């Protein structure tokens, strides 16, 4: 809806949208001549003497065309005085949410991905690589959905973060405002852009035997807020794989399509892909490579303890019996020059006699598995922004979550009916639960009932 000359201009939103005009005081419709149909968006000159309209039209065969028109306003008459010439129709329908932007100071009009001479619509001055949704005429900036351009040269000057709207605007101070979901963000495009420090990634550059479906986590040294996932590429040299990016505090988490087994993979995060909330810091280009593992990788020994040692060569957690100190464990400690060990569980699970044989042993335990779980969570440095919750009665669900939890340094909370009846465990949990922002429950209602989650966190 637009207001000019105490009149309301409204596009009715029908299949062939008409422009309707009403008296702003009485709301009585005014019959202008001629009738304006197929109106996508309109804009006015500052003096209100001219109106501009874009129009898209199509045929049943699928072809579509569009143009921008100029009308003079004379009393209750609209007279067409100019029309653009966009060439032959094509099969690609233009997006319907693009505005008409009049730049009288520069004598230009921006319509979709094109810039025309405001006084001669047949003169095409520039074509951008995507439709334009907002313009800062003073600073010569044009904003598309994925990039911000120099209005004069058409050169992309920075990337836009992910957003879910085409409704964006500049304020008088030159800040760009836009929405992503329910949240509104503001970017000061005139502020100098600092660079985020070199990140740490999991997997690390050059790492091997990475599971094909594991997310990639890139940790920066300061908080980040916005990401443009269109500027993230994962490739095996033959194909690119779809990505979905999200941000948690200072971490960029990249989920992706399953990668092929036994392949060399390259990740590229382009410059200015991520930034903080006000756009004052963004990333340098980041590239890293890793290789995926075989479809099957068997790690086995002659018994469960030897198998545990073989597994520990990939991940240093070793299975022992209550009193059994296997020869393979002694050899492993010697080969890897282990100087510190943590024993998880009380003497009823792992005897004191066995613990004395371990180098630098420190026992961590509680009165039951839930209290022991709390002791472990309090002892080690975990990233509590993501927390996985699984039943403590059977360990299948916890085992399923352990790989993803490990790669993101996230904890696993054992939670079921027994946890909420353990006073000591619930007391320990009070100090931790406020840190747990994103919580992922592994398993169905029978494993971790909803009322247990509610009792813990509400």
Task: Give structural notes.
The protein is of the alpha+beta class. The protein has four domains: 2-188, YVTN repeat-like/Quinoprotein amine dehydrogenase (Methylamine Dehydrogenase, Chain H, 7 Propeller); 195-291, Immunoglobulin-like, CATH 2.60.40; 298-365, no CATH class; 376-458. The chain contains eight helices and 35 strands. It has a four-stranded antiparallel beta sheet, with no helix packed on it. Strands 8-9-10-11 form a four-stranded antiparallel beta sheet, with no helix packed on it. The radius of gyration is 31 Å and the shape is elongated. The chain starts with a strand and ends with a helix. Mean pLDDT is 82; it is low at 296-300.
Furnish the topology, listing elements before pairings.
Elements: E1 2-4, E2 7-11, E3 19-23, E4 41-44, E5 50-58, E6 64-74, E7 77-83, E8 100-103, E9 108-111, E10 114-117, E11 120-127, E12 134-136, E13 141-143, E14 147-150, E15 156-159, E16 168-170, E17 175-180, E18 183-188, E19 194-195, E20 200-202, E21 216-219, E22 226-227, E23 232-235, E24 240-241, E25 243-248, E26 251-256, E27 264-269, E28 274-275, E29 281-282, E30 286-291, H1 304-312, H2 327-335, E31 341-344, H3 352-355, E32 361-364, H4 369-379, E33 386-390, H5 396-407, E34 412-414, H6 417-420, H7 423-430, E35 438-441, H8 450-457
Helix pairs in contact: 4-7
């Amino acid at each position: 809806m637009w207001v000019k000359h105490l009149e309301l201009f409204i596009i009715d939103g029908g299949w062939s949208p008409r422009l309707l005009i009403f008296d702003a005081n009485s709301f009585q419709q005014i019959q202008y001549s001629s009738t304006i149909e197929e109106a996508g968006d309109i804009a006015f000159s500052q003096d209100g003497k001219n109106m501009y309209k874009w129009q898209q039209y199509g045929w049943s065969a699928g072809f579509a065309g569009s143009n921008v028109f100029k009308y003079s306003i004379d009393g209750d008459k609209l007279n067409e005085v100019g029309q653009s010439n966009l060439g032959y129709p094509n099969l690609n329908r233009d997006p319907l949410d693009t505005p008409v932007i009049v730049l009288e100071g520069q004598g230009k009009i921006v319509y979709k991905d094109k810039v025309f001479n405001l006084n001669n619509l047949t003169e095409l001055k520039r074509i951008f690589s995507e439709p334009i949704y907002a313009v800062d005429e003073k600073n010569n900036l044009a904003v598309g959905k994925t990039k911000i351009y120099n209005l004069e040269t058409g050169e992309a000057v920075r990337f836009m973060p992910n957003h879910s709207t085409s409704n964006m605007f500049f304020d008088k101070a030159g800040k760009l405002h836009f929405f992503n979901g329910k949240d509104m963000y503001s970017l000061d495009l005139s502020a100098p852009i600092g660079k985020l420090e070199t990140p740490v990634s999991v997997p690390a550059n050059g790492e091997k035997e990475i599971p094909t479906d594991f997310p990639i986590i890139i940790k920066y040294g300061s908080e980040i807020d916005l990401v443009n996932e269109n500027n993230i590429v994962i490739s095996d040299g033959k194909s690119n794989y779809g990505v979905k990016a999200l941000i948690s505090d200072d971490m960029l988490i990249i989920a992706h399509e399953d990668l092929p087994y036994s392949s060399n993979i390259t990740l590229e995060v382009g410059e200015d892909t991520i930034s903080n909330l006000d756009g004052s810091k963004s990333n340098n280009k980041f590239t890293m490579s890793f290789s995926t593992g075989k479809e099957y990788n068997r790690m086995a020994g002659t018994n469960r303890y030897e198998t545990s040692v073989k597994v520990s060569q990939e991940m240093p957690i070793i299975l022992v019996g209550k009193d059994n100190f296997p020869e393979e464990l002694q050899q492993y400690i010697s080969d890897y020059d282990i100087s510190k060990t943590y024993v998880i569980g009380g003497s009823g699970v792992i005897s004191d006699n066995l613990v004395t044989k371990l180098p630098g042993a420190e026992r961590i335990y509680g009165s039951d598995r839930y209290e022991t779980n709390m002791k472990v969570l309090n002892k080690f440095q975990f990233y509590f922004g993501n927390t996985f919750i699984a039943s403590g009665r059977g360990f299948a669900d916890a085992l399923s979550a352990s790989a993803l939890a490990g790669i993101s340094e996230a904890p696993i909370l054992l939670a079921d009916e027994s946890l909420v009846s353990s006073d000591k465990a619930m007391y320990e949990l009070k100090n931790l639960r406020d840190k747990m922002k994103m919580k992922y429950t592994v398993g169905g209602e029978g494993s971790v009932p909803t009322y247990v989650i509610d009792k813990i966190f509400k």
